[in-house]
Amino acid sequence: MRRRNGRAALALLAVLSITGPALADKPDWAGGPGGGHGKPQGGPSYESRGHDSKGRASGGSVSRGDVTIIRDYFVAHPVGVTSLPPGIAKKLARGKPLPPGIAKKVAPVELRQRVPVCMNGWECILAGADMLILDAVHGTIADIVRGVVR
């Protein structure tokens, strides 16, 4: 009898040593849902991205001068802002497609004529208090200028 219990214990120990690492949680440094150091949620807005000394960024990104033009426009021409539902607002992220619950409200023509990025193949729409720069070909959000619409 003693010999049989020893073999069973040894077999159980072997099975647990093989499956143990597969059942472990991810360490904190691994990122993702189990870790705390993965990619940040949501896309970077203008304020959090790096720009060169002249305020320019690549692609459909908005420069500091463009942000100033946009803010000044909405100070002079206030638009009634309806806030987005919290779930949809959280889904706005740079590089992601536009969430399906957002009705496209195109930026005013006067503003699009003043901001170069809105004239060069990018689509500028208003979503709540934010202005989104969309890649019209792929339907993804190229940039978000947060808190400019008044």
UniProtKB/TrEMBL annotation:
Keyword vocabulary terms for this entry: Signal
Signal peptide segment: 1-24
Region (Disordered): 26-63
Biased composition annotated in UniProt, kind: Gly residues: 31-41
UniProt-recorded name of the protein: Nickel/cobalt transporter regulator
